[in-house]
Amino acid sequence: MTNVPATEASATADASSQSLTVRDNRTGAEYELQITDGTIRAGELGQIRVDADEPGLAVYDPGFTNTASCRSAITYIDGDKGILEYRGYPIEQLAEKSNFLEVAYLLINGELPTKEQYEEWVHEITYHTFVHENVKEFVQGFRYDAHPMGMLMASVGALSTFYPEATNIADEQNRHLQIVRMIAKMPTLGAWAFRHAQGKPFVYPDNDLNYTENFLSMLFKMSESKFAADPRLAKALDVLLILHADHEQNCSTNAVRSVGSSQVDPYSAVSAGIGALYGPLHGGANEAVLRMLKRIGTKENIPAFIEGVKNGEERLMGFGHRVYKNYDPRAKLIKKACDDVFEVTGVNPLLEIAQELEKIALSDEYFVKRRLYPNVDFYSGLIYEALQFPPEMFTVLFAIGRAPGWLAQWNELVTDKEQKIARPKQIYTGDRGLDFVPASERWA
Ligand code: CMC
């Protein structure tokens, strides 16, 4: 940071047009801060201080609402216009014309694969779908009613103990192997968590099937020798995985990056991401939406429910977003996928309630003023339920879809020379310098 008088700074028109002049009214000093890519370096504020021996100025930003934590070339979002692109490709085109594994390749490698690269990638993922037999034993060790997200989080974290070499994160090939393993094994772990809760035997991966069909087979196969998913349902699930594959610096990705910044292995970092996704304000919202729709029960109950939301009694789950101040483009695509799925399964009766809720909310001043629109989680649960998933599994599906995004972001973090261990500041509000009195005296 240069500490120059403003008059001097404005003399260099070009430089000053890309800078911010700050006057500290406590001291009268002026500072010129460089603006790069619409940001200033928070660290540069540190030189703004009254006395040399006191801490410099910092930014206070709970929830990082206006703080960029990294440079990233993976996902672009324009929240006002409702635009989402992976590596520059619009989500609408990827959902219509690509498939989940190709999108995963794109996110991680930055470019679409050639035919050879694609075949190699699919081969690698397919042949890493099996997990060590020990994994089966510890999944079986969970209580019969364990939430599958808790099981997924624990089992992904536990994979680090099976692959201790994963700690060698400086090695590109090694990183690639762990990325492949994780994308390949997440459906196996998710499906086994589901089967465990249902008291059904685990189904091993079937390498003749594609990624989504194999996942459905591990979930739903019973005594038949080969599970054949309805291709329209497998396609709809594949589209849903694409729509969830990445979303720049959201809560779980931030968790993956934050934990990954300590240079821990990627299984531990992704496990932290799964924990973050579990929460109802993030990926857990899809489960919460379905429970909310069931609780509302009939269209007649909607006005009273909306009144409760407006009075601050609860939130309309599946509505609102930190970045989108317009219709979430993923919600639009999911609404369309609903039609395809319901054509096969019959219409989910909760759809009527969801559509009516949306209609009322989009014309109600409370939601209009706050720019609250349906997000990705508003309609996805209706599809998942039609596909026979219980609500506890919804966020597991989100996690499997998000895995390539987490791993692409982790890989970018590890290779970004500007990144450091994540370690925010705080504003200390507690006591200082108290004299400790031992319990024996305090309780006498
Ligand atoms: N229902 C009712 N009011 C809401 C909602 C909602 N769903 N979302 C935000 N608001 C209100 C909030 O009360 C606040 O009002 P006021 O200014 O009067 O205090 C205003 O809108 C701004 O909300 P905020 O909480 O400051 O916004 P945020 O950016 O911190 O939170 C959010 C974003 C997604 C956590 C929030 O909109 C929410 O809780 N939505 C419901 C949960 C949900 O659907 N989450 C899934 C998000 S999309 C999938 C994902 O990426 O995880």
TrEMBL record:
Bias kind Low complexity: ranges: 1-21
Pathway: Carbohydrate metabolism; tricarboxylic acid cycle; isocitrate from oxaloacetate: step 1/2
Record keywords: Acyltransferase, Transferase, Tricarboxylic acid cycle
Family classification: Belongs to the citrate synthase family.
Sequence segments annotated as region (Disordered): 1-23
NCBIfam families: cit_synth_I, PRK05614.1
Reaction catalysed by this enzyme: oxaloacetate + acetyl-CoA + H2O = citrate + CoA + H(+)
Alphabetized Pfam families for the sequence: Citrate_synt (PF00285)
Family annotation (Gene3D superfamilies): Citrate Synthase, domain 1, Cytochrome P450-Terp, domain 2
Molecular function via GO: citrate synthase activity
Keyword Transferase on entry: yes
This protein's name: Citrate synthase
Domain of life assignment: Bacteria
